[in-house]
Amino acid sequence: MIAVIQRVTSASVTVDQAVTGAIGKGFMILLGVCEEDLPIHATTMAEKVANLRIFCDENDKMNLSLLDIGGETLVVSNFTLCADTSHGRRPSFVKSKNPDEANDLYELFMSHLKVMGVTKVQSGVFGASMAVSIQNDGPVTIILNTNDWKIKV
Questions:
Q1: Predicted pLDDT at 17
Q2: Domain of 42?
Q3: Which CATH number does the domain housing residue 86 bear?
Q4: On the chain, which terminus has fewer CB atoms closer than 10 Å, C or N?
């Protein structure tokens, strides 16, 4: 599972000219679910995201988490994060999880954020063509990949 996290002051996602999710201060998260991902990857990613300390404290040091500041999240599914670009010039998406299973893990990720204490979790529409608007804060962008962690399966 791959997450691109942007610290934002606000963000929204629109599908067919209708806003499906909008947040204030918090994280805009692009989430890619890859073929090898399991439920443990979704819950572990959610725990990491909720506790990632990239908000500034009173000394202007990145020392506070989403939970610490009562931040919000906007999660947008993005299978292109699992692209294989090792051959040629056209990306292959065969490393993306099939849509039904990917949607289940996407939903599990968001529900676990709520379990962790994130009070506002908004989303796009899984599989839809979406327009995302963000107001970056910093900018601060972090990429998390569960393949980089030692997760016991």
A1: 94
A2: 2-148
A3: 3.50.80.10
A4: C
Residue 144 lies in a domain: yes
Contact between 26 and 73 (Cβ < 8 Å): yes
- Is residue 23 one of the residues assigned to a domain? yes
Residue 153 belongs to a domain: no
135, part of any domain: yes
Q: Which residues of 33-43 are buried (b: 16+ CB within 10 A; e: fewer)?
A: bbeebbeebbb
Name residue 30's beta-bridge partners: 4, 76
For the chain, what is the domain count?
1
Q: How far is CA 151 from CA 24, 82, 148, in A?
A: 32, 19, 9
Is there a cis peptide before residue 139, judged by omega within 30 degrees of 0?
yes
Give pLDDT tens digits for 26-43: 999 999 999 999 999 999
pLDDT tens column, 45-88: 999 999 999 999 999 999 999 999 999 999 999 999 999 999 99
Angle at 35 between CA 32 and CA 36, to 5 degrees: 105
Q: Which tokens sit at 115? A: 């379990």
Q: Which two tokens stand for residue 78?
A: 């993005």
- Residues 33 and 97: beta-carbon distance below 8 Å: yes
